[in-house]
Design a protein that fits this description.
The protein is an alpha/beta fold. It has a single domain, classed as 3-Layer(aba) Sandwich (Rossmann fold). It contains five helices and five strands, in the order βααβαβαββα. The protein has a five-stranded parallel beta sheet, sandwiched between helices. Helix 2 runs parallel beside helix 5 and helix 3 runs parallel beside helix 4. The longest helix is centred in the first third of the chain and has 14 residues. It binds 1,3,4-trihydroxy-5-OXO-cyclohexanecarboxylic acid. Pathway: Metabolic intermediate biosynthesis; chorismate biosynthesis; chorismate from D-erythrose 4-phosphate and phosphoenolpyruvate: step 3/7. It catalyses: 3-dehydroquinate = 3-dehydroshikimate + H2O. Belongs to the type-II 3-dehydroquinase family. It comes from Psychrobacter pasteurii.
Amino acid sequence: MTQPSSQQVHRRILLINGPNLNLLGLREPEIYGHTTLQDIEQRLSKTAKKHNIELISIQSNHEGELVDAVQHHGLLADSENKIDAVIINPAAFTHTSVALRDALLAINKPFIEVHLSNIHSREPFREHSYFSDKAVGVICGLGHLGYDMALTYCIQSLYSA
Ligand code: DQA
C-alpha cells in the first residue's frame, strides 16, 4: 500500500516545556546554554511546517496548566484538532509530577522526553524521571539540539505509521 506523503496528511505535535524553561538563555547558561526558548520554538515550528506538521508550543511554570493542555490537545479537542505526538521537557516536574505523567498516559499518544542537560550526571535526585519508562525515547545532554532530534524522529515515525 502506498504511504501518504507529508504533503497529503496534516499532523500536529504538541511541544511542552515545564517550569523555568521560559528563562532559557538567562538561566544557568553553563548548564542550559544560551539559546532561548523562543529560538527553539521558532526553529522547530519552521521545520515542522516544511513537513506539513503544525507545532503547538506550550510553556508553563504551573503543573495544572500543563495537565490541562495535555488533556485538551490530546483528548478533549475535536478530532480534527487533536495532536498526534508530544515532545516534552517536563523540567523540574520530571522528578515530581505523577499528575503530568497520568495526563500523558490518559491521552495515549506517543511522547518523547527531552532534557537539555544530562540528568544522569548531575544531582542524584535528577536521575529519576516519572516519564522515561513510558516515553518512546529519551534524549538528554545534547542541549537545544535534542529538541530537533526529537522532532526528526516524530516526522519520520508519523509518516511511516
Ligand atoms: C531539565 C533538567 C531538570 O532536572 C531541571 O529541573 C530542568 C531542566 C533539562 O532540560 O536539562 O529544569 O529538564
